[in-house]
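Internal ticket #5521
Category: modeling
Description: The requester needs a full-assembly model to guide mutagenesis choices. All entity lines are attached below as received. Residue total reported by intake: 926.
Assigned to: D.W.
Attached entities:
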Amino acid sequence: MEEIQNLRNIGISAHIDSGKTTLTERILFYTKRIHAIHEVRGKDGVGAKMDSMELEKERGITISSAATYCQWKGHQINIIDTPGHVDFTIEVERALRVLDGAILVLCAVGGVQSQSITVDRQMNRYAVPRIAFINKCDRSGADPNRVLMQIREKLNENPVLMQIPIGLEGGFSGVVDLVSMKAVYFEGDRGETLHVKEIPAELLEEAKARHEELLDAASLFSDELTEAILEERVEDDLIHEAVRNGTLARKLTPVFVGSAYKNVGVQPLLDAVNRYLPSPTDVENIALDLDHDEKEIPLKVDSKKPLVALAFKLEVTPYGQLTYLRVYQGSIGKGDDIFITRNRKKIKVGRLVRMHADEMEDIERAGAGEIVALFGVDCYSGDTFTDGQLNYSMSTMFVPEPVISMTIVPSDNKAQGNMSKALNRFTREDPTFRTHVDAESGETIISGMGELHLDVYVERMKREFQAEVVTGIPQVAYRETITAKAEFDYTHKKQTGGAGQFGRVAGFMEPSKDGSYVFVNEVKGGAIPTEFIASVDKGFQSCLRKGALLGFPVAGMQVTVNDGKAHSVDSSERAFTQAAVGAFRQAYNKARPVILEPIMKVSIECPSEFQGNVMASINQRRGLIMSSAEDGAFSAIDAEVPLAEMFGYATVLRSLTQGKGEFTMEFSKYAKVPESIAEDLKREFREKEKGEK
Amino acid sequence: MERFISVSPLKLLDQSSRKGLGTGNLGVLIARAGVGKTACLIHIAFDRIFHGEKLVHVSLDETPEKVTSYYNVILYDLVKALDMEDEFEFRGRIDQNRLILAYLNQSFSLDRLRANLENLEKNMGFKPDALIVDGMDCKEASRETFEAFRRLAEEVDAEIWFSALSHRHITETNERGIPYPCHEVDDLFSIILQLQPETSGMRLKLLKDHDHPSISDVSVSLDPGTFLVQAKE
């Protein structure tokens, strides 16, 4: 257990250009994982270690997430590189999920920008404790105090300075540690030698005041520290413990200062990761027991328990597929048999490696809490692995049906091949992303959970697979359903030379309770011979694929067949399938069919002053506001809005809120389209049909 | 809906002088911790919604998700207890007519609430007939606060319900029989209800009925599981 307590799985999250990659590079240098430092936009053409993709090197930003491992003062640290862009994909979610803690990097000049707010809020959603690092204190215009205020006001956190800078901008040379009350200077070519000295006289007063502030803030989280303060016998360890308690409870954010580029302040930040951020044992993780209706089961960080691990990232390397894995419970070793919960497939663990960006180290076994990678395992991202004893999943097995689709056409031959590769990869990563080729038009159609969702993948096709595609207009996935019971009695008869066709099908259709298709056979006395019943079912099902109102699938229908007639010579499977098609057409319009549209649960966050405008914009979109929550200067509005009304909302919201508002949406349910809109849709459909004829 | 209304805890107010709280007035439900104040308030909400009114639920300590899940759990139990089939319809009706305003981390102020209500009416056409204020610390709230709430009730032409936490060990009661913590502000409330556990379930008592001077033990017995009025006493 002692080892697990010395393990840290952290993310470094930041706004683009606040220096995340440089900081990561320095961390790897000081932890001796790399032996030279290359700048992100370096002239030596090597690039920083975490940017494993060519394009990222060019742009100087990190896009894809990778995990890397290092050691610092007896602690093992896995750094999970979380994408700095805000596109809300399942991959970002998974990266956040496997973190136990994070460093929030902020630029001393730029401060808390809107993207930092988004990332911070995502971390709140996953209850990730964090420490903040105010980077770029050497830049002109650097103002750590302003950033500190912004952490309080914009992120609504309770920040406390752990250090103050010695000098700023061009004169930035070190930091004052407010716990030990010493000045720390970083010397040597790469700042690798730390010199601890007395606090410069001109900073002493400020340092004392900030030290008092730190004690005040920290004492709230430790009675022992409070007592020690009263008795004037404060020791460093007591402060560290109190700050750790506050950080783990996410009620305190320790703030550090430095400049990764100038090699100032990185080592103390690593000390802080060890001291204040949680080990896997400090965090509760939940699995779902699929044998018991997805009941939530807390996992034990114990390597002796049965294995539960999550594949959170796939990477295609020249040597095959690499699967990044977090072990939550139990352990995984070379030669073990493990099972994928999704399909119960057994896999033998071949190579087990610990990743260091694009280099790897073979290991024999990894225990609970660790992050490792497997080679050549055929699985999807998000898959849960167990040792076969447990039927647990780390995420729900329920995969919603896509609600939006659009056509994509490759721009040239090269893009054609790359597009196929990309689609193959994306469908493995994300079960809500689907693709198919339309039988009628021959076009490739991608479907997903929203406009942004599809945009992200189109962008990734270009970026990662060099597949330029032309996209069509997004189409909402409407459905049709019936609202009344209607009877049918249809005879299919054909006698025009050759073998005749005969089949009679009678019964009724009605709305089904759970929204699925149900076929009930109540035929008595062999009125329809048993061997033809399946054909009747097939006939009805074939009609469900394309409803008569809009040509969209029909959902939520129960069909009961209770009578019929067969002919000893002319009846056949085909005749009964045709009879069912006829029966469906006969009854469908009588069953009062309606059009259903996907309704999205939309969550909008914006400064409270824009709340009224945002509410009005939801109202204009046929939306229903469910709630509004105010927290500090921010408001969060939850609403249900038809997907068809949400196209282009990102732009609208930006202009309504001076760029400060943002929203996420996810599928909620299908609901009936209002009559006036249904009429428009039907008219459009009829015109399109006519056009095609 | 009719079936619920006939056994709703607010049925008690049928016996009050004005058959209800009425717009522009404040009402309060007093109970000890863990007795079911929030559940009872949500029943009051259901009663108003199923009477065709619009409601704003103001939460001072819980997130909207939590409040929504309370409503869902209570509705689920209700549908089961009354053996009603139209849960979907009920849920739709609640979603259409209830709006939750949450104020987290001491973000609440009356001015903000007033601004939000104006917003709802102006931008959404949503004008509540009733407000439920859950999570307010009545013992800390000043007389001025309730006076301001009363003015707000008149301004927005709605009734406002509160809950107040009493304590087993504080037995203070004023000369009108109104217990702690409402004993010093009872003149500002038009209806005061008290929820008390008893051996056979729960009793909801009417302690104040507008300006009606004497109330002789007006109460109903509630099922402790569902908070519905028990069939026969």
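Resolution: model delivered.
Comment from assignee: The interface with chain A takes residues 63-64, 67-68, 95-96, 99-105, 107-108, 112, 116, 119-120, 122-126 of chain B (CB under 8 Å).
Ticket closed.
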